[in-house]
Amino acid sequence: MKIQTLLPKHKTLQKHIDYYYFLQTHEQDFFTAYYAFPHTHTPLSIFQHGSYQMTHEGVSIIHQTNTPPLTVLIGMFTTPFRVTLQGPINEITIVFKPLGLNNFIKYSFAEAAGENVQIFSGWNQLSYIPFLQDLYTIPDMEGKVDYLERFLLSHYAPFQEQALLEKALVLLTDFQTNYTVDMIAQQVCLSAKTFTRLFYKHVGITPIRFRKIARFRYSLDLKKDKAIGKHLTQIALESNFFDQSYFIRMYHQLTEHTPSAFFNSIKQVADDKFIVLPIT
Asked: Which of 32, 48, 85, 272 is the right S-S partner for 90, CB 3.0 to 4.6 Å?
């Protein structure tokens, strides 16, 4: 499975989008299955053709000729889920940063992404479907990104609580200080109850669960940096896990593996930007 990535070009979009990735296969018998793991980012995947099936294990995308484009949104999941791709796949994915998608939809993130995975219908289908059909006529990735960014900018509308929640995210991901929810709420001049409700509305998860996933991802980034070559004990300390047993317990909750087993099994894809666990 070959995945190529491009960074957003427009300065406005760089604030809200981490990168785009492109996956294309041509074989009729292509099949891949892998486990994805909790992330603070939000992927929005557009398939040129395909059907969508949810199971108790995860999601399957199956190529079907002459079907309209399919857009799938990944929500804030907290346990691994299985992804299956079958047949010729032509996929473009926008990887939004936390709060990123909120600036391009007219309702809350929790309404758009109430499930782990769902069909996305946040843009007017009368104009969105023709846009997608035109998008897939563009032969090169750079051209696709240019066209996609023009569409995104036409829907750009910053939401009211953006600055407040951005400040809260900075505090939540300060793993050296470990601010409590009460302390963060005070910093943004809200009660803890109001802050938690507002955070869930726009992030789709509670502040405590978000920090758990963010800490997990921070430790992954430390481990993925081959130039540093840190041991797991050092990673646990620098990620400010309370102790080694808590580090192991947290990894098991989020990956269903111990840290050592997890790192021995995963594969980095999309130019090493994210990780999956292939299913053989």
From this structure: 48
